[in-house]
Amino acid sequence: MQAIVVFHDKGAGFWPWLFGRRGFRHCFLALNDGRAWMVVDPRSNGTEILAEVAADYDLTAFYRLQGFTVMEAEVRAAAGRFPVWFFTCVEAVKRALGLRGWWIWTPYQLFRCLEKAHGK
């Protein structure tokens, strides 16, 4: 399954605006199951899940044209349980990707982790 993680500043709450790195105050995930892109956007007022567009649409280019940072990601099977942690946009994306790492709790740290995984 193809996955991309999108980072941006729009819709971020008070604390991310105060302490977050510019351009990396919020993140969400888009998954391509071969039929459509599904967007999972965890927000403070609830998680939005949408079947966005057809699978062959270049969603990465669409988000980059809007000025967002986009990283490809690998979806892994999660082995075992995840530790109890604050539910944030980062934690939701990590769990959907099967990514572990208690030290990853900001969108920028998640970006750096994905960047390192892709050898960039």
In short:
This protein is an alpha+beta fold. Helix content is 28%, strand content 31%.
Structure write-up:
This protein is of the alpha+beta class and about 120 residues long. It has helices at about 15-20, 60-65, 90-95, 105-115; strands at about 1-10, 25-30, 35-45, 45-55, 70-75. The chain has one domain (about 1-115). The chain is about 30% helix and about 30% strand. A 5-stranded antiparallel β-sheet has the order 4-3-2-1-5, sandwiched between helices. The longest helix is centred in the last third of the chain and has 11 residues, at about 105-115.
Descriptive terms for the model:
120 residues, alpha+beta, globular, single chain
Work out the helix count.
4
Q: β content, as a range?
A: 25-35%
SSE topology string = EHEEEHEHH
Query: What level of helicity do the residues show?
Result: 25-40%
The figure for the number of domains is: 1
Structural class based on helices, strands and sheet pairing: alpha+beta
First-last Cα distance: 21 Å
Q: Give a quick account of the main beta sheet: strands, pairing sense, barrel closure.
A: 5 strands, antiparallel
Task: Give the number of DSSP strands.
Answer: 5
Secondary structure layout:
Elements: E1 2-8, H1 14-19, E2 26-32, E3 36-43, E4 46-54, H2 59-65, E5 69-74, H3 89-97, H4 107-117
Antiparallel strand pairs: 1-2, 1-5, 2-3, 3-4
